[in-house]
Amino acid sequence: MSVILQKIKDQKIVPLFYNESFEISREVIKALYEGGIRVIEYTNRGSQALENFTRLKEISSTEFPELLLGIGTVKNVKEMDDYADSKADFIITPVISEELIKHSAVKNISLIPGCFTPSDVNIAFQNGFRLVKIFPADALGKNYIKSLRPVFPGMNCMPTGGINADFDDITEWLGGGAVAVGLGSSLIKTDFSAKELTEKVQNLLQQLNQN
User: Fold this and answer.
1) Is residue 9 very low, low, confident or very high in pLDDT (cuts 50, 70, 90)?
2) pTM of the complete model
3) Residue partners of 81: CB distance under 8 A and separation at least 6
4) N- or C-end of the chain: fewer Cβ atoms within 10 A?
5) Nearest to 25 by CA among 33, 17, 15, 14
6) Would you tell me how many other CB atoms lie within 10 Å of the CB of residue 131?
């Protein structure tokens, strides 16, 4: 988990998406990878999610050898098992529960639990987690993490939901205490252009690394 955390902190943005088409999903990942992205969250939000993810993991070792490909929007133990069997590098949940925590420990799954309230963060903290997803971030605001940090020293927070894929908005979240941000539809449009997406992430990563 420490490797995943460090790569997320270094990258500062974690693209997340889902598409019913395997070929389009592959094209999105290729565009992101060519732009310098090495950590991606595919989301469990459609009927083809598990099949697509399994196939993407099968090709990633040859086509995207440095990529950490995780799965998000996992809400129960069955889904967790399915994606663990598909060799997910990490699993992100939109919620936190004792059941999911215990199961991830038993199965040795790298889990990034979703938290909304301080009570959620405390459950994660008391169970040894040092990276959580704050979701939905836009409902909480950019000062929320700054208020949490003194109470939970050493906790790393990755806000996701409603964050704009532009340098100013991202740096405001980072300045508020986030170690990285999740970027969904603001980065990966339904009618995306592979060339434009690659250029977009290249520019963002360059700006963020210079900041």
Assistant:
1) very high
2) 0.96
3) 103, 107
4) C
5) 17
6) 23
